[in-house]
Amino acid sequence: MTLRIYIVSGEPSGDALGARLLRALREGGPVEAAGVGGELMGAEGVASLFPQSETAVMGVFEVLPRARGLLRRMDETVADILRFRPDAVVTIDSGGFNKGVAKRLIAADCPAVRIHYVAPMVWVWAPGRARRMAGLFDHLMTLWPFEPPLFEREGLPCTFVGHSLVEAEAGDGAAFRARHGIGPECAVVSVLPGSRAGEVRRLLPVFRGTLERLAGDLPGLQVAVPTVGTVADRVRDAVKEWPWPAVVTLGEQEKQGAFAASRAALGASGTVALELALAGVPQVTAYRMNPATALIGRAVIRRRRFCPVNILLDRPVVPELIQGDCRPGPLARALAPLLSDEKARTVQRDAFRELAGRLGGGTRPSLRAAETVRRIVHETHLSSKR
Question: Could you give phi then psi for residue 50, rounded to 5 degrees?
Answer without folding.
Answer: -155, 165
